[in-house]
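Fill in residues.
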C-alpha cells in the first residue's frame, strides 16, 4: 500500500514538473501576454493579421523584399515599425518596442483583457472598407468609390493608429505609451475619440458620396 502511495506521489510530482516546464516554454509576448485564444473576428482579414508567436516584436525579418510578404509579419511588429517615423525616430526599433510594451501594460490595467486581442480588434475596426480614387482623362477628373482590399485595410489601420498616437503625444504632458494605449482602446471599441475611427468614417463618407 505504501509503495502504491509513493508511486502515485511521484507521478503527481512528475505531472507538476511537466506542466511547469510546458508553461515555461509557452511563447508569450514580452513574457507576459499569451497568444492562445487570440483570434481575428473578421473573416476577410484572417490571412493578413498574423499573431506570429514571438517573445519580442523584433524578428529582423526582411518583409519588404517582396510584394505582400509584409502580410506574414507579426501584427505587433508592424505597429512597432510604423511608430518609428519622422526622421529623428528612424531605425530606433528598441525604443518603439519599449513604447508598445508600456502601452500593452496600460491596456491590460485599464481593460483587464489580453492587449494583443484588444490591438487586433483595433486593427479590424480602424481600416476603411470603402475609399474613392481619381478616375478620368484629358483634364476631366472625377472621384469613383472603390472597395478596399483586406491588406490595405490592415495597412491603413496601423498607419492611422500610429499617426493618431504621434499627433496626440506631441506637445502633451502624456507619454507616447499612454497615448498609444488610449488610441488602441478607443479604436477597439469604435469610439469616435479615436483618430483612426474618425479618419475611417470620413473616408467612407466621402466614398459613399462618390458612388
Amino acid at each position: 500500500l505504501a509503495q502504491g502511495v509513493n508511486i502515485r506521489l511521484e507521478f503527481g510530482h512528475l505531472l507538476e514538473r511537466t506542466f511547469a516546464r510546458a508553461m515555461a516554454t509557452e511563447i508569450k509576448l514580452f513574457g507576459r501576454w499569451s497568444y492562445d485564444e487570440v483570434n481575428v473576428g473578421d473573416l476577410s482579414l484572417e490571412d493578413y493579421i498574423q499573431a506570429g508567436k514571438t517573445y519580442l516584436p523584433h524578428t529582423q525579418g526582411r518583409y519588404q523584399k517582396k510584394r505582400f510578404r509584409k502580410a506574414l509579419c507579426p501584427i505587433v511588429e508592424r505597429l512597432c515599425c510604423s511608430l518609428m517615423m519622422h526622421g529623428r525616430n528612424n531605425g530606433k526599433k528598441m525604443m518603439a518596442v519599449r513604447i508598445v510594451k508600456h502601452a500593452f501594460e496600460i491596456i491590460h490595467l485599464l481593460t483587464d483583457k489580453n492587449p494583443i486581442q484588444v490591438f487586433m480588434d483595433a486593427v479590424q475596426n480602424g481600416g476603411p472598407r470603402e475609399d474613392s480614387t481619381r478616375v478620368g482623362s484629358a483634364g476631366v477628373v472625377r472621384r469613383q468609390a472603390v472597395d478596399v482590399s483586406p491588406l490595405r485595410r490592415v495597412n491603413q489601420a496601423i498607419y492611422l493608429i500610429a499617426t493618431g498616437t504621434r499627433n496626440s503625444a506631441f506637445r502633451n504632458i502624456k507619454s507616447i505609451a499612454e497615448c498609444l494605449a488610449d488610441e488602441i482602446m478607443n479604436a477597439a471599441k469604435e469610439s469616435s475619440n479615436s483618430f483612426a475611427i474618425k479618419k475611417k468614417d470620413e473616408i467612407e463618407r466621402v466614398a459613399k458620396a462618390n458612388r
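The radius of gyration is 22 Å.
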